[in-house]
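Section 5.1 Outputs to date
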Amino acid sequence: MPAARRPAAPPDPLSDGTGPSALSLRLALANGDTVSALRVDPAGSAAPVAAFVLAHGAGAGMRHAFMERLARGLAGRGIATLRYQFAYMEHGSKRPDPPALAHAAVRAAVAEAARQWPDLPLVAGGKSFGGRMTSQAQAAAALPGVQGLVFVGFPLHPAGKPGLERAGHLDGVCCPMLFLQGTRDELAELALVRDVAARLGPRATLEVFDDADHSFHVRAASGTHDAQVMSRLLDATAAWVRTLIEAPPWPAR
């Protein structure tokens, strides 16, 4: 009997030429540097329910296809986004910024989002490195107006070196957090992620994606497609954001 084939992948929203357009912005950092940013709102007359300050990962900038899909997909679910570059990516370097400089970019982006959408609740976070820098900034001093953090693949440890050291600062984050994690993520052993979420208690929500790696890629043998994983990821994020903004404010520590 021939092997069962997985169903055809759904259409890619980046390939059809439709969807919301992006507004280019510049962010001024505390050291006098500036970086690029992109604002994306829901298409047409639909009003967003929240805005997501969305940081890129260590190896690819805000215009990477994965980041584009996140921004467009969230816009289609009623959530505006502000993507931005860290300074090293803006200037073509491959070495990520030291934490202090990365945190300054996070804070500049959050401040700009508050100016762009003064009446919207904010969430912040991002892909891998971007999410971790956002949580470090939040733990050091609460990001004004940010009601929750979203981690699109939290990089819990280096590949092949399981550990919890990178999660230590999360104890100082006093707002709800959403962890979106693949079961094959080489930078986040799932059992350890579950331990972190359990330690954080009701502040943490963990959504697990079967067979997904750190890039949320799934193998053909999984019976699903990357586009389906992305759709589930977007649905989970939008649902969590809507629940967050409808709930009573989280108590500050």
